[in-house]
Each structure stands twice: as C-alpha cells, then as structure tokens.
Amino acid sequence: MLVNLYMIKKNKNTLNHIAIIMDGNGRWAQKRNKPRIYGHKKGVKAVLKAIDFSLCNKLNVLTLYAFSSENWRRPIQEILALIKLFVCTLSSKIKFIHNNNICLKVIGNLNQFDSKLISLILYSENLTKYNTGLQLNIAINYGGRWDIVKVIKKIVRLIQRGLLDLNKINENTVSTLISLNHLPPVDLLIRTGGEYRLSNFLLWQIAYTEFYFTNVLWPDFDSKIFKIAIDAYFCRKRNFGGL
Ligand code: IPE
Ligand code: IPE
Ligand code: MG
Predict the structure, then answer these.
(1) On the chain, which terminus has fewer CB atoms closer than 10 Å, C or N?
(2) What CATH superfamily classification does 17-143+185-234 receive?
C-alpha cells in the first residue's frame, strides 16, 4: 500500500514512478574480456544502488526490467545464470528489503518458472505487502504484449460470465486490469545501454511517460547518472495533449 505520497518535486512535474530498462550488462563485461554473467553480477550491485537512491530520495515507485519475455532466446547457460542470480539476490536481500519498509511486487508471466522460484517470490511479496515505503516492482519474464493479452483474456472471461457489458468497456477497464494498475502512472522511463527502444516493456502504461536514454551501461549506473536523468525530467514540459 502506498502511504508515502511525498515526491521529489521541483517544478510542476511530480515524480512518483520511475521505470528502468537496465541494459548493457553483457557489453560492460565484454569490454573487460569477461563472460557476460560477470556483467550481470555487477548489474545487481547497480540495482542495489538504484534502490538506495530511491530510498534516500523518498521515491514512491521504482519498476525495474530484469528479464523480458524475449530473453528466453538467449543461450540456456545465460538464462540459467540469470535465474540463479535473481534467486540468490532476492534470498539474500529480502531482509534488507523488508527492514527498509519496501513493498516488493514481481510482474510478468511466472508460469514458466519452477515452483521453488514462484514460492520465493510469493513469500517475499507476502512478507512485504503491508510495507508503506518504496514500492519496488521487478519485471521478470515480462512483456508488454503479454500484459495486454492477459487483460484481453480477463475482459473476455468477465463478459462470458455476464459480469461486464461490452458497451461499457473503455480505457479505464484496461487500466484497472493491467500490471501496476494499483500504482501511479510511470512518469519517467530510463534506458541505459545506448539503445533507443522499449524492447516490449510496459507498453500500455507508458503512453505519456517521459523517456531518458543514456549510453551508460547498466553496471556503471549510479546516483550521479540517476540524478542527471531526474533533473532532465524536471526540465521537460508535459502537455498530455493539452497546451
Ligand atoms: C541487460 O543487459 C540485462 C538483461 C537483459 C537480462 P544485457 O544482457 O542485454 O546486456 P547487453 O545489452 O548485451 O550489453
Ligand atoms: C531489454 O534488454 C530487457 C531487459 C533489460 C530486461 P534486451 O537487451 O533484452 O533488449 P534488446 O534485445 O536489445 O531489444
Ligand atoms: Mg541488451
């Protein structure tokens, strides 16, 4: 539940929710003649820094893209190493997360993971669900298109059961059924790693989000670049279609 509604506020733009596409781990490692997984391990340190920064600055919501539904196309060794890293990090940091009043939520299609991982996620979400500080969302096996298809299926089921009238479906119906529906909209989306694309991250949810792209590779992401991205956000004029 969100209680801490104070946000970093400088001008008219309010900043409740930041999402990050954490890209560039592999290239960071390759530049150092190390295996890609070395970059992913360093990437975890950058995740912890980003969480620290969010706590210090009383950010309401941080949503991190950790594994896309398309990342299954990678070599199996890398996929297994990424899953192992996720399990180890969550197991070792859950106490820290809970002690810091962080409410954790995992979004994505969890059906493809084994029951041990699902139990760990459910345990962590359950443990932290009444925490009132930072809302931390981790997207794993997440795809924006998957998210939209999931909503379509829910809507069809509601219609079939006679619980929803076709003529009453509107944008709000979708917004209330899609991932992160209980949270404020994404104000700022940061992508590291120098690519200018969304890679199937939050599609519906970012219709009016401000984007910040940086060449910094994810393991090098720190409070300095985080602050630069936020400062850039506060210089933007958000119109939402108005004047
Ligand atoms: C992002 O880094 C992490 C995941 C997608 C899991 P990459 O692994 O995509 O790193 P690059 O883009 O190959 O450098
Ligand atoms: C996006 O990065 C996914 C995550 C950061 C989890 P990718 O490296 O998978 O994106 P593409 O393949 O370059 O678009
Ligand atoms: Mg990449």
Answers:
(1) C
(2) Decaprenyl diphosphate synthase-like (3.40.1180.10)
